[in-house]
Amino acid sequence: MQSQIVTFLIKCPDQKGLVAKFTTFFYEQGFNILSCQQYVNAMADRYYMRIRLDAAEAEISKKELEDKFEKVATTLKCTWSVHYGKEKQNVAIMVSHTSHCLYDLLERQREGTIDCNISLIISNHNKLKPIADMFGIPYYHLPVSKETKIQQEAQIVGLLEEYTVDLIVMARYMQILSEDFINKYPQRIINIHHSFLPAFQGANPYQRAYERGVKLIGATAHYATVDLDEGPIIEQDVERISHESTPKTLKGIGADIERLVLAKAVKCHLQHQIIVSDNRAIVFPESGE
Amino acid sequence: MQSQIVTFLIKCPDQKGLVAKFTTFFYEQGFNILSCQQYVNAMADRYYMRIRLDAAEAEISKKELEDKFEKVATTLKCTWSVHYGKEKQNVAIMVSHTSHCLYDLLERQREGTIDCNISLIISNHNKLKPIADMFGIPYYHLPVSKETKIQQEAQIVGLLEEYTVDLIVMARYMQILSEDFINKYPQRIINIHHSFLPAFQGANPYQRAYERGVKLIGATAHYATVDLDEGPIIEQDVERISHESTPKTLKGIGADIERLVLAKAVKCHLQHQIIVSDNRAIVFPESGE
Amino acid sequence: MQSQIVTFLIKCPDQKGLVAKFTTFFYEQGFNILSCQQYVNAMADRYYMRIRLDAAEAEISKKELEDKFEKVATTLKCTWSVHYGKEKQNVAIMVSHTSHCLYDLLERQREGTIDCNISLIISNHNKLKPIADMFGIPYYHLPVSKETKIQQEAQIVGLLEEYTVDLIVMARYMQILSEDFINKYPQRIINIHHSFLPAFQGANPYQRAYERGVKLIGATAHYATVDLDEGPIIEQDVERISHESTPKTLKGIGADIERLVLAKAVKCHLQHQIIVSDNRAIVFPESGE
Amino acid sequence: MQSQIVTFLIKCPDQKGLVAKFTTFFYEQGFNILSCQQYVNAMADRYYMRIRLDAAEAEISKKELEDKFEKVATTLKCTWSVHYGKEKQNVAIMVSHTSHCLYDLLERQREGTIDCNISLIISNHNKLKPIADMFGIPYYHLPVSKETKIQQEAQIVGLLEEYTVDLIVMARYMQILSEDFINKYPQRIINIHHSFLPAFQGANPYQRAYERGVKLIGATAHYATVDLDEGPIIEQDVERISHESTPKTLKGIGADIERLVLAKAVKCHLQHQIIVSDNRAIVFPESGE
């Protein structure tokens, strides 16, 4: 294996000796353990681990590593995945009219703070094409109506396959995706909702926040599931507002929260910091190695 | 009028010249205007003012002031109230089992950061009596069941009258008050709810926050209305949590938010910073005079 | 006067009747007062006002308005300025190597959340020219060394005059400007410093924050004065970090704070929300009209 | 060993296989590992671990455990400490005139959110004795002047020994302790400073924050060292203020930050979450087990 960082995400029933067994396994294969983060859900008797390995001195092939680990995993009843640092992920961004999240992601990718390929942008409108052009990213305008939804989604799926997309980011794509589409990409679609969920699920959250007279507004990034706005929450944040705020100024304040929250969620996903369990996203903090 | 600070809270339809008319009125009665805070709700065409006056050089009686202002108010279609700094308000605290908000309010009143009399504590349990004793506040233990609710509330009303209570603070009083009781004290009952409303209305918010996997939890202080947890929000705040948090640790983190949020709301009320309109609480910031 | 919003910023010694006098004055000239924000510094006996007027029904010329107000101002010993909504301000951005603040400002201007012309970008390096090109903004590469500093600044001054620049934004321009330069543009140069001032003034704040082991890092936007990093603070914010953070990850976290803080400060300046007094920036909140 | 939780805090040079070795060691002694938190400082090549063990099924005595671990530690060049859950720590609180932090700590201890004995309160004034009496804690009034400082500190040392105090909390004790005193209790004195250090070290931070015109104020809890306000920072927080804030209102806002920050720091210390290294406090988050 070439010099690179390898990340394992593991979940299994809690049992004595797990950390010793896992770390000893990787140590014996010649890996240096850069960080080893665990979470024990004592109520559910479940164990979760994210372990980052430096492969520089490991003389094992990917195949061999995975086969060997599978044996350990079977004994301990683990579900697991492994991610190799050298493999850059392909991202598709879906948008409608609103540009702030799109700009933000393109910029961060350009600056290197989000490490991925942004392979394409898909929109049901043509409005944001000039931004795609500025950044030199292919832009697909796929209009959609009730009648054409099935075909449009089929076109999207075609594009996602063509570009071998790993992650779909709904950066204020204001359409509801079909169950079929969502089920095709479990934990691979990140949506940004412009409220502090579960408050103000559904449409017009800023207007409703204004009417309810809340003192803080927020945004929530979550994996899309078939239950609208009810998928596992990856990141949220809020900002203080005042009675002076109108639905319009709330939109402006909220835009900044949305940008940051979505970017953080995308980054956590790309860095393999997330394990989903029982509709909860366990997000391990970025390790400082 | 003796030397003191006088606060007017005014609401009326928006119209040209309001601030000039109000400030000129008070200026002509000999008041020095310490601060004059306004809010124009342009969407609803409503105008709101909080004006604080130094009465040191005003040689007008309360009666005269109020009569004169009423004339202005009638012309401009104002609803208004006036509050004299020398009149300390009487507060009743209602509690059940949980002590953190009670301690906090007693302490702040003792230290002078909340300026009022805490006249009595009412509880459906006897558990927190020792705290009342420590601080020398009368404690009334009024148990309640479905059957005795009407009588118990009548006893409470009796006590509130006996102590001429101005403000009722539900510092984690885990009973639902009757509509009759609530309607008797409009904008005079402050409740603390242990979630970031409108998320997790109703029972067990920390358990539900855990299950939903939110990344921040909060607390909300609001005026009690007959619609449970739907009254005008005075203050809210949140704190970041992690997947490590259990419902039990959430309770601990939440307790600190509840204390601060409730104390701030009570302070804003006592300082006459709040005007309620359309179920929204307009909370003017504390002026620095 | 055409239909537009007019903003007055006023400071004067505190005295009885000010708000009545000012608001009556504008009311009598036919203006509708949209918002009227005041601050009384009781310790220094100083009064500050920001008043926003709708000129739709005011049949007075600019000249006449200013002459009339000057008479009032002289009587009350006011310093004041007036700003007409129709006059878009010209902004110059100065940068070195770092792009995040530049991207952010360009984007916000493009999206309309910052209302100004970005007239030109000036840099001592050529590195960020491609970004200027993407957004179609003139980019001037003016290298600088100790020896050429005077000439380089003269060139900058020439450009600022050519473009009739109103505001200079140092978006991580890592050069120290000369006293002459700074004195030429009082309260017209906004700098972003990558620490929570007054902590970590000067160079390498993230490295020093790491070494000191602080638990939060921040950023500060301030008007540049001849005392480095000591000008009036317009906006600051912080973000929580952990012991895992390295100087490098601090830089990443800090970049997001810098972007937001600088954008907010620029917006407050452009919206005439700021009055400077005794090296303190009084920043009136955005009014919701 | 009786059923209890055992916590090890370990630091050593970084080297391959550490986590495997430590966790295997504890696993083999019959402990269940509840949580295992690590931090690798890659720049300094240092490794830190906090490991929490359930001793329910471990049939080893304390002595035996410590002897065995010492052998491992010697090989790996570790510095370490072990803490047994059943041993409640004794805390002394030192105060002067200000009561908010004192109230807060007493209350939290009473409610069980801070798990310790508060053995005694020491003050150079008599003012806060009534609070000690309310909570039934011995109060020692030890006045101090320049001349009597050595004797007064000797008296304090006597009391700390008499009560076998583990932790000294300076809850706004406004005296500077001597080097001798401080050196006697390394990492066992926690001080609260009423600013966001390193900003506003030394006296009158709120006055200076006002004068500097900062937009946020803060508080910092740190271990006391001989360099005043320069010890390892355990916890900090900030709160937004406005230009309306006076030094007096800053004091009020700051008091709430101080209370929370000090309480969190004390809790982290009592729960053995802290390892100090190079004047930085590594504070492991509370584990959710």
UniProtKB/TrEMBL annotation, chains A, B, C, D:
<dbReference type="Pfam" id="PF00551">
    <property type="entry name" value="Formyl_trans_N"/>
</dbReference>
<comment type="similarity">
    <text>Belongs to the PurU family.</text>
</comment>
<dbReference type="InterPro" id="IPR041729">
    <property type="entry name" value="Formyl-FH4-Hydrolase_C"/>
</dbReference>
<dbReference type="InterPro" id="IPR036477">
    <property type="entry name" value="Formyl_transf_N_sf"/>
</dbReference>
<dbReference type="InterPro" id="IPR045865">
    <property type="entry name" value="ACT-like_dom_sf"/>
</dbReference>
<keyword id="KW-0554">One-carbon metabolism</keyword>
<keyword id="KW-0658">Purine biosynthesis</keyword>
<dbReference type="InterPro" id="IPR002912">
    <property type="entry name" value="ACT_dom"/>
</dbReference>
<dbReference type="InterPro" id="IPR044074">
    <property type="entry name" value="PurU_ACT"/>
</dbReference>
<dbReference type="GO" id="GO:0008864">
    <property type="term" value="F:formyltetrahydrofolate deformylase activity"/>
</dbReference>
<dbReference type="InterPro" id="IPR004810">
    <property type="entry name" value="PurU"/>
</dbReference>
<keyword id="KW-0175">Coiled coil</keyword>
<dbReference type="GO" id="GO:0006730">
    <property type="term" value="P:one-carbon metabolic process"/>
</dbReference>
<keyword id="KW-0378">Hydrolase</keyword>
<comment type="pathway">
    <text>Purine metabolism; IMP biosynthesis via de novo pathway; formate from 10-formyl-5,6,7,8-tetrahydrofolate: step 1/1.</text>
</comment>
<feature type="domain" description="ACT">
    <location>
        <begin position="7"/>
        <end position="87"/>
    </location>
</feature>
<feature type="coiled-coil region">
    <location>
        <begin position="48"/>
        <end position="75"/>
    </location>
</feature>
<dbReference type="GO" id="GO:0006189">
    <property type="term" value="P:'de novo' IMP biosynthetic process"/>
</dbReference>
<dbReference type="InterPro" id="IPR002376">
    <property type="entry name" value="Formyl_transf_N"/>
</dbReference>
<feature type="active site">
    <location>
        <position position="229"/>
    </location>
</feature>
<protein>
    <recommendedName>
        <fullName>Formyltetrahydrofolate deformylase</fullName>
        <ecNumber>3.5.1.10</ecNumber>
    </recommendedName>
</protein>
<comment type="function">
    <text>Catalyzes the hydrolysis of 10-formyltetrahydrofolate (formyl-FH4) to formate and tetrahydrofolate (FH4).</text>
</comment>
